[in-house]
Amino acid sequence: MTAWDGEAGEVGDVGGRAPHQRLDADPESVQKGLVQLVLTLVELLRQLMERQAIRRVEAGGLTEDEVERLGRTLMLLEERMEELREHFGLEPEDLNIDLGPLGRLL
Predict the structure, then answer these.
(1) What are 4's strand-pairing partners?
(2) What pLDDT is stored for residue 7 in this prediction?
(3) What percent of the chain has pLDDT over 70?
């Protein structure tokens, strides 16, 4: 998905962008991009929570019931993320944003 194209309706060099480009304000494209960004952030938080939960389980600081409840919660969250990705037509790799020199987010 590209927010800029080189068609008519040109603007000057703004913020380091090449001249002769304009913003693609297609509502469907903007909505999908926003959903992709939000789901990427949710997935990042989900993975961080999962890693923290594993550390707590390995450290032995949780009761058996807490471990069970935590496992169920993480499974349900992962299932819900899959449902949302499917609903919006996104693949797991669509949530792995390229951060340029820093590499991939997830």
Answers:
(1) 23
(2) 43
(3) 77
